[in-house]
Amino acid sequence: MTTLDWLISVDDHLIEPPDLWVSRASAAERDRVPKVSRENGIDTWRYEDTVSRLQGFIACAGMEPGTFTPDPINYDDPIMRPGYTSSLERIHDMDADHVMASLCFPTVPRLVGQMFQGAKDRQLSLRCIQMWNDFQVEEWAAPAPGRFIPLMLLPMWDPFDAAVEIERCAAMGTKAICFSENPHALGFPSIHDESGYWDPVLRAANDAGLPLTIHFGSSSAVPTTSPDAPLMVSATLVPMNLAYCMTDWLWSGQLQKYPDLKICLAEGGIGWIPYILERAQNIQRMYLYAKENDFRIDMMTGELTKREMKLDMDTPIRQLYDDHIFGCFIDDRFGSEHLEACGVDNVMIETDYPHSDGTWPRSLANARERLTDCTDEVVYKVTQGNARRVFRLETEIYRTPESATEVSA
Question: CA 245, CA 382: separation in Å to the nearest integer?
Fold first, then answer.
């Protein structure tokens, strides 16, 4: 097999094993950390006032549409493949799918650890986040060197503690940081906060060379049109959260301030990127007034409100995008047909294992279909090269597996 026969997936998911926190907690913490028990026949996770259950559409790798539902599932259900909770089992499924390395987002604590972000006991919540971060490096990635890209959660309520945790995890070998598409929606300051709330985090990420990986839905909010709109409206629109997110970062001033900062947008597709860039470029050309004063317009009254805030209207929008922002796609036909407009150096592939949007066990075939008209150079960039560069994957560790293990779906 050649290098082009293997993918690096920058968006997959693990399902935390039932003893993740209990096994790492001290005797004094053990009764208070997240734990799971069978309640009324359903495996139920509890932490303080948070209650959560696993759902069928997060554990359906290789299943046909119509054979899975959003109903709760248990750890011992037949559909729970061993690779959902064990990295050593996962590599067999990765081999079958020709995935050489995988970045895995959390499930039980949610995409940026929302389970802990609003908890009352912040000291214990910090410990729980550290336990999850340690698990990613020591138990998930370490048994299979080079097959997983460890990432970390942050205590978003304290940016200084978060910066310390970034430094600690970077020293352990962590490669990426989970961050929210919209911290404001979670009750934290936005990335535009004039007091510099996020400066310790962004400075630490910049200095450590760890990208911010931002998954759609990580703001605990999804777009919809009305309270009575069908779920399918939100399911269709949810990638637009990342369109908002990318626009936020382009106009935040943070990318100029932190020149090595990288922003990776997970599971939002890429087909929308060229239009957002074109629109932002047009705005940059038209609204030169913002060099002196930012402003808001009330769309109901037309009233103009000036703000004592100057925006950078000179650094080309496309340059900011090219240097800092990376789109990721699973099965985006339109986007993959317009890679030049998206930037061939700014696109990475993902398989979303084991979720309902995922392409296992035919991710390689899917990638070949989407990239059929591309040169080998472009195929390599999208399927491996860009991920290697962005996540700083050492080639002597992150190497092509010698063979693939056949695994049935």
Answer: 22
Q: Which value, in Å, is the radius of gyration of the alpha carbons in the chain?
A: 21
Q: Which pair of tokens denotes residue 337?
A: 């047909």
DSSP string, 79-115: T--GGGT-HHHHHHHHHHHTEEEEEEE-STT-TT-HH
Tokens matching residue 336: 């993959």
Please tell me whether residue 295 adopts helix, strand or coil conformation. Answer: strand
Q: What strands lie across the sheet with 347-349, from one edge to the other?
A: 151-152, 176-178, 212-215, 263-266, 325-329, 347-349
Q: Give the least confident one: 38-47, 65-74, 89-98, 350-359.
A: 65-74
Q: Residue 14 above 50 pLDDT?
A: yes
- The contacts of residue 75 (CB under 8 Å, 6+ apart) are 18, 36, 43, 54, 85
- Map tokens 């301030």 to a residue: 257
Chain segment 118-141, per-residue pLDDT in tens: 999 999 999 999 999 999 999 999
Task: Tell whether 404 is covered by a domain.
Answer: no
pLDDT of residue 1: 56
Is residue 176 a part of any domain in this protein?
Answer: yes
Asked whether residue 406 is domain-assigned, the answer is no
Name the phi and psi angles at 213, rounded to 5. -100, 120
Measured over the CA atoms of residue 340, residue 346, residue 350 and residue 352, the dihedral's sign is negative
Write out the two tokens for 329.
């796609």
- Give the range of the structural domain holding residue 62, as residue numbers without chain letter: 3-390
The pLDDT value given to residue 403: 56
Q: How many domains does the chain have?
A: 1
Q: Which residues face 105 on adjacent strands?
A: 13
Q: The domain that contains 159 carries what CATH number? A: 3.20.20.140
Q: Is residue 178 part of a domain?
A: yes
Residue with tokens 């409206």: 233
Going by DSSP bridges, is the β-strand pair 35-39/42-47 parallel, antiparallel, or unpaired? antiparallel
Handedness of CA 382, 383, 386, 391 (dihedral sign): positive
